[in-house]
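Amino Acid Chain and Its Fold in Token Form
===========================================
Structure side: the spatial fold of the chain, written down as a series of whole-number tokens.
Position: the record begins directly beneath this header, with no further notes in between.
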Amino acid sequence: MKLRINKTYILGLVACGALFTACSQEDPTLFGGESDGYYFNYDSKDDLTATINFADSIVKEPEVGYVPIKIRLLGHLSNQTTPITLKAEPVEGYEQAQVTLPTVEINAGEYDKTVKVAVARPAQENTTYAVKITFEQGDKSMKDFDSFVIYTKESYEKPSAWNDNYYGEWTAEKYKFCAKTLGKAAFYSDDSYTQSNQYNPRLIYAVRDWHKAHPAEAIPYDIPFLSDTEFWDAYERPDYWGDLQDKYFGNYDGWGFGKFASSLGLTTQNEEQILGSTDEAELQKSNRNAVLLMMQNYNNQFEQGYSYWGLNSAFSVPMIEGMDYDVVAPAFWTNSLTRPMIEKYYGAYSEAKYKKMLKIASSNVDGFKPFLLFPVKLQWDDASMQNTPAWDTDANLNWTYMGEQVIYEFYKMFKQQEPALFPDGVTEPA
């Protein structure tokens, strides 16, 4: 008697004693009792491989991974336990993966078994190792289903969802640090709110802690600061921040620090180098650079339609009395739409005049910010489909003067100290 055996299941279990004969050349091989054996139980030869990447388990860093392999008996159902011995063989073109093979026993009355092959962590990153698992008694296995290949590696590639804005430029070492710090290998796939408001600050604190533990070593991770976090206390005050930092960069607050640090292009690698010095000459250099960036940022925001409250929320740094600052021409003054409004009070723009104005205003107005000199805004007009100029009624000077009255008060201040630089005959706005 002969039984026809399918590689997925044993028909002889269903119709014991029936006789099956080959009906075409595509039928599986026929086996008799003397040919009972076993095979790797997969639908296709293409399924007879598995790849294990230890990079996927970076959080726990296991030394061993496990690959399940399905084995099935071939032929008659046995009424005794069937022992099967596996062996590991090299794969041409690969260094051999180190594996521990399980003991395989298929119990009487059963014909399926799934076993796990223990695969050792690769010795080197970015190298693929391989091993072929076969049966010790190869003559008892089905052709084309008599071997299973396992590939193993520890290989890191930049995920498509990686966000440079939150984590900086991708490197394998930075990814490992982030994953271990956050306790999650695929943290980069979470929603942007979580990534920006939880993950980014946690990583910054972790780098700061690393630096405290390794003060003599270069900081290896450049996590950027964000300007658009949702929380007012987004970033905790760093240890290096003291009275000198308050003097040159303003009193610390976590939300403002994010905008300030982001605008300066700071990361965890250079924040202390640029901001944390105790040498006032170095801090003055950083302050001058920050003031220049602040002015450029005001220009960008004004051109985008920001008015008083948006500009007031932008990053700002103090302008120190007696310091000579480089300046950029304020867009409020040079924009063709608002220029006539400003020239009424200040006259034509010049760099020398603007520098004098900044020195006078910063010496006389507490909490002075350069945009306060220009209480104008660009507002979109739906009818004309273009921007139109307007006085910004939200603008205020110490909540005493509002809108156009603000520029008039500055005009009086400047006219008193530098009368030759400013127009005559300017009257108070109605």
Q: What stands out?
A: The two ends are 114 Å apart (CA to CA). The first strand starts at residue 3 and ends at 4.
